[in-house]
Design goal:
The chain is 41% helix and 13% strand. The protein contains 15 helices and twelve strands. The strands form three sheets. The chain has a five-stranded mixed sheet, sandwiched between helices. The chain has a five-stranded parallel sheet with strand order 3-2-4-5-6, with helices on both faces. α2 crosses α8, α9 packs across α14 and α10 crosses α14. It binds 5-phosphoarabinonic acid. The site of 5-phosphoarabinonic acid has 14 residues, from loops.
């Protein structure tokens, strides 16, 4: 562990009766029925982990893979100005979270010197021609590496953009050199990308079979882009390993992921808080909030439980950003339906801070700000918002890191991944699958005339229902 590094802590007083005004969970339950229920969930997750179904647990300890990722990054970074991830969902959101948290803001606008000659990092997920064309217009094909990331190797959005970029590269460089501008991160055995890599001798990194898309941030999916821009992936993995150790116990009171999962599950299923707002008070954690949304939504939103019963269950995760969204969503959180719980994400200290000038004789109304710092303002706003919610009996808790760095981010990734598989066990659903996204994929394929896709008969818009 980094010297002096503190692991994230979860402050959940504002969920508990006696602290939360007029509402909250009976704290005795945390040593009673909820602790017993968590022990069962822990045992179920342990069984699946030991059976090799949850490969994300093992990634922090896979040193050969980490070494291979770092060597691969080192082998090309000096020869490229830009590193472009082409991937979507779990194949993009982890890299975006790492980028937002650990690179200086506006990284891609810095000059080579300020970036330490590391490449710019772009992420192409949505197949929107406006975005793709604008990016390609800025890239030097001879000095850009395209990392196509797809576990299945068949995802339409990713593969379509790969085909567009391959033609763009071939036009600019010729087929032979175009080939050298690609690196694939994909299944070690299956899928179109794997076949293409073998046929055209394109370098690859593996996504282990037992690591699902939204659980892949600590695999080459997240770590190759991170290593390419100089992020200390060893520290990310060390933070994740330390958190996994803390979460190995079946004792609820000592297991942070267990506590997070148990409280959020109870908030939804017993206290009516089906909307779960993940609200960082740090711009660096914006990407992380979007990563959590996918992890939560795809893992827990399920039609059937593991016994095959129809349940149509799962909380609705909503990212929000403090303090900006105090001027947007807070009114609803404070006075709207009591169907929400807020999870604040906070840091004890910023990387750098800025003092607000004082005194301000010409602006006496603003004198209270002078002499404080921007971080103090932001953080006091978080404290004030949590307290205001508490006074209104609105459940909230805070996940606190000492600062946003590679170690604490690794710990946060692991905390939420373990929490979501515990939550899956508590909801009695399988957090590792996502059958609900399949139908849309099949219909898209059919609409594009692809084989194996159902050609849907979608009724044309009815003028009676248009305005
Ligand atoms: O979490 C998941 O499994 C999904 O979000 C996938 O990551 C996403 O659909 C992309 O899939 P693939 O990596 O196969 O292209």
């Amino acid at each position: 562990m980094r010297a002096g590094a503190r692991q994230p802590v979860i402050d959940f007083g504002n969920m508990v009766a006696g602290v939360l005004e007029g509402a909250g969970m009976d704290p005795r339950r945390l040593r009673g029925d909820l602790a017993a229920r968590f022990r069962d969930a822990h045992a179920e997750v342990e069984t699946r982990r030991v059976a090799g179904e949850m490969g994300f647990f093992g990634l922090p300890h896979d040193l050969p893979l980490a070494t291979r990722i770092q060597r691969t990054a080192d082998s090309f970074v000096r020869e490229c100005d830009a590193f472009v991830v082409i991937g979507i969902g779990g194949s993009a959101l982890g890299a975006a979270a790492l980028r937002d948290a650990l690179l200086p803001p506006a990284w891609n606008e810095l000059d080579d010197g300020a970036r330490g000659r590391a490449p710019r990092l772009h992420i192409l997920d949505n197949p929107d021609p406006d975005t793709a064309l604008a990016l390609l217009a800025r890239l030097n094909p001879a000095r850009t590496l395209f990392n196509v990331v797809s576990k299945s190797g068949t995802t339409a959005e990713t593969m379509a953009q790969f085909l567009v970029i391959r033609r763009w590269l071939e036009t600019a460089l010729g087929a032979e050199r175009a080939r050298t501008r690609f690196l694939f991160t994909t299944s070690p055995e299956r899928g179109t990308l794997r076949q293409l890599a073998a046929r055209h001798d394109i370098p690859t990194l593996p996504i282990p079979d037992t690591v699902g898309g939204r659980f892949s941030v600590l695999s080459p999916v997240g770590l190759l882009p991170a290593a390419a821009v100089g992020i200390d992936i060893g520290a990310v993995l060390a933070g994740a390993a330390a958190m996994a150790r803390r979460c190995s116990t079946s004792e609820l009171g000592a297991n942070p992921a267990g506590t997070l999962a148990t409280l959020l599950h109870a908030a939804d299923t017993e206290m009516g808080a089906a909307v779960q707002v993940f609200m960082p008070y740090a711009d660096r954690l914006r990407g992380f909030a979007y990563w959590v949304r996918q992890l939560w939504a795809e893992s827990l939103g399920k039609a059937v439980d593991r016994a095959g019963r129809r349940v149509e269950t799962g909380p609705t995760p909503v990212p929000a950003f403090g303090a900006a969204d105090q001027h947007s969503i807070l009114q609803l959180l404070m006075e709207g339906p009591r169907d929400k719980v807020v999870v604040f994400l906070a840091r004890a200290a910023p990387g750098e801070d800025v003092e607000i000038p004082a005194p301000c004789p010409d602006t006496p109304d603003l004198a209270y700000l002078g002499g404080h710092t921007l971080f103090e303002l932001l953080d006091r706003e978080r404290c004030a918002t949590a307290e205001a919610l508490r006074r209104e009996g609105r459940m909230n808790m805070t996940v606190m890191v000492d600062r946003v760095d590679a170690h604490s981010l690794g710990a946060l990734f692991m905390l939420f991944q373990i929490a979501v598989v515990y939550a899956g066990a508590l909801y009695e659903v399988d957090p590792l699958d996502q059958p609900g996204v399949e139908l849309g994929k099949v219909l898209t394929r059919g609409l594009l005339g692809g084989s194996g896709g159902e050609v849907p008969s979608i009724p044309p818009p009815d003028p009676r229902w248009r305005v």
